[in-house]
């Protein structure tokens, strides 16, 4: 058996400690935080001088296009859509997280089909109006 010099033994010990510290970092690293699941206020009717309808406490939008690749995808608008779908129209969009994902899009398509709207998965003026006034298309 070969005996290591004290300098070499110290270097090997130091490398071993460093390797253990790195391994501990990987084992104890916290997982990525999950998306925030927002709570919706109880959807209620709201009336303004121009519009009336169901409001879930996130956004009072009526016209912006919200959907895959749309510029109107603000978190507040998406949360409002998720809340209206889930609590007013009983269609599950998944977590109420304000993120436009595949479950939210699928829920919008399902809702649009049931409301006799073009089922394109994009919430535009017709779908907003239908979501707000009770689940059917109102021209």
TrEMBL record:
Signal peptide (from-to): 1-34
Pfam families in alphabetical order: PG_binding_1 (PF01471)
Alphabetical UniProt keywords: Signal
Name of the molecule in the record: Peptidoglycan-binding protein
Coiled-coil segments on the chain, per record: none
Domain Peptidoglycan binding-like: 76-131
Gene3D superfamilies membership: PGBD-like superfamily/PGBD
Annotated organism of origin: Streptomyces cavourensis
Ranges annotated as spanning the membrane: none
């Amino acid at each position: 058996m070969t005996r290591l010099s004290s300098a070499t033994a110290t270097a090997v010990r130091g490398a071993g400690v460093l390797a253990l510290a790195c391994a501990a970092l990987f084992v104890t690293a916290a997982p990525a935080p999950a998306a925030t699941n927002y709570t919706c206020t109880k959807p209620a009717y709201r009336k303004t001088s121009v519009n009336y309808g169901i409001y879930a406490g996130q956004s009072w939008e009526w016209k912006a296009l919200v959907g895959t690749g749309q510029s109107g995808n603000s978190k507040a608008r998406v949360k409002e859509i998720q809340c209206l779908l889930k609590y007013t129209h009983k269609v599950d969009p998944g977590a109420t997280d304000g993120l436009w994902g595949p479950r939210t899009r699928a829920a919008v398509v399902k809702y649009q089909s049931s409301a006799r709207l073009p089922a394109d998965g994009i919430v535009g003026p017709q779908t907003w109006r239908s979501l707000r006034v009770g689940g059917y298309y109102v021209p």
